[in-house]
Amino acid sequence: MTTIDEKLQPIYADVLRRNAGETEFLQAVHEVLESLGRVVTKRPEYADNALIERICEPERQIIFRVPWVDDRGDVQINRGFRVQFNSALGPYKGGIRFHPSVNVGIIKFLGFEQTFKNALTGMPIGGGKGGSDFNPRGRSDNEIMRFCQSFMTELYRHLGEYTDVPAGDIGVGAREIGYMFGQYKRITNRYEAGVLTGKGLVYGGSRARKEATGYGAVYFVERMLGANKQAFAGKRAVVSGSGNVAVYTIEKITEFGGKVIACSDSNGYIVDEDGIDLELLKDIKEVRRERISEYARRKTGTHYIEQGSVWDVPCDVAMPSATQNELTGKDAATLIRNGVIAVGEGANMPSTPDAIRNFQEAGVLFAPGKAANAGGVATSALEMQQNASRDSWTFDQTEARLADIMRNIHDNCAATAEEYGVPNDYVVGANIAGFVRVAEAMNAFGVI
Ligand code: NDP
User: Fold this and answer.
1) Domain hosting residue 75, numbered range
2) Of 330, 350, 370, which residue is a domain's last?
3) Which CATH number belongs to the domain containing residue 142 in this structure?
4) 243 lies in the same domain as 98
5) pLDDT digits (tens, 9 = 90+) for 373-431
6) Catalytic residue among 108, 129, 252, 370
């Protein structure tokens, strides 16, 4: 296992002691600290004034009760979270997740990752994340609305276009953002469009925001393949998940001439050797909100499989786009055995540390989520720009900006990896490039 430089080990020991049991947060901190040894060797001043210790500690953590009434008239209680991790580069910015697995450790890991990701975009946004252990699965539209309204009734006091600007994540799409924006507007009596991103087009949303994370991840991987004299054209790809990120990852890979033959949800996966039919997929997931098994029921010659893993399907390019730690060391070994050449993380931290090590040791190109999936938040920042200037850009204009940002992030990560003596190590490149930007701003502010 890659280890943390001995100068940074006491910092990790302290994080471990103070955040015991927060597995995902500890995993994310460990991975970043593994990369930072190279920085403090070259630039020891970055270890001064407990800078790294401060970066590992959220600026503010808010936990609150979310009571709401279900369709039977029963009162339900959920727990809401917002972790305002780091505002050195701008207002806190990061999505809201509704999933039964949500706890403070998961929100902290996401907020920590978000800080570096947002720094990589080069835009003026800090890092934050929020959510609830609310399970939207099987809930009626009215229940979702009542839950979102109750969630925002507490959260609104912590938000603002110059303070904290949430967006969507797992379980939170345009519908939920609409309910939350409506409640924010009602409580504050302010039409503050820049307080949430991922909004609908008619009330201040940006074109291409829905597509941005998936498209951006594919732009990143295409650039990474290009730097290694490869391209998506003619490649077989597997994408996990079938939510927002997965659908638009599949769409852009297909546009680039690749063929996506499998995708999944948390119950199983489908295989379509002809390449996923996007119209059918969107109808099932976006219009009807059904399970992925429907795909095989509606298209002959395709299969739905519940046992095993989507990573058992042989492919050239794998894009995990569902959730954290969904691709294990064993899955990585299977993918390598089946000839995978590149992995691009659409989700946040979907590959376990063992999986990443396996890929890197096998020479598989590996694009970490904090770089590869930054297109979503970058386009959220473009949405904020449009809101601030009361403007609305065309789809092509917005996508062109997104493509440019993703190419820059790629090139910055690649150049940083090279500068620190580990060419093609995008994990180290992303961690260091993101860290340096946050660290420079924090140093300028003194000890705060
Ligand atoms: P969605 O809710 O739209 O879709 C999530 C997908 O992942 C669903 O297919 C879901 O299946 C599956 N999934 C969720 N949890 C699990 C699990 N525990 N095991 C297996 N599958 C699971 O979310 P998004 O597409 O928005 O987010 C996907 C990932 O991308 C997350 O890691 C998120 O943090 C990350 N991300 C999202 C961004 C965005 O703009 N939306 C931006 C950057 C990163 P099921 O329906 O069965 O739950």
Assistant:
1) 60-192
2) 370
3) 3.40.50.10860
4) no
5) 999 999 999 999 999 999 999 999 999 999 999 999 999 999 999 999 999 999 999 99
6) 129
Check if 323 has its Cβ closer than 6 Å to any atom of ligand 1: yes
Encode pLDDT of 124-151 as tens digits: 999 999 999 999 999 999 999 999 999 9
Task: Tell me if 431 is assigned to some domain.
Answer: no
Name the packing angle between helices 104-121 and 426-445 (round to 10°): 90
- Measured in Å, residue 344 CA sits from the centre of ligand 1 at 15
Q: pLDDT digits over 171-182, tens only?
A: 999 999 999 999
Q: Is the CB of 241 under 6 A from ligand 1?
A: yes
Same domain, 243 and 185: no
21 φψ region: left (φ > 0), alpha (ψ -120 to 50), beta (else): left
Are 246 and 287 part of one and the same domain? Answer: yes
Q: What is the pLDDT of residue 1?
A: 47
Residue with the smallest CA separation from ligand 1 atom 47 is 266
Number of domains in the chain: 3
Nearest CA to ligand 1 atom 4: 243
Sign for the CA dihedral angle at 237, 220, 240, 395 comes to negative
Q: What is the pTM of this model?
A: 0.98
pLDDT in tens, 291-305: 999 999 999 999 999
Query: Which residues make Cβ contacts (< 8 Å) with residue 346, sequence separation at least 6?
Result: 213, 214, 217, 239, 241, 245, 246, 249, 319, 320, 321, 369, 372, 373
Residues 174 and 246 in one domain: no
Q: Hey, which of 117, 169, 250, 267 would you mutate to test ligand 1's pocket, going by the most ligand atoms within 8 Å of its Cβ?
A: 169
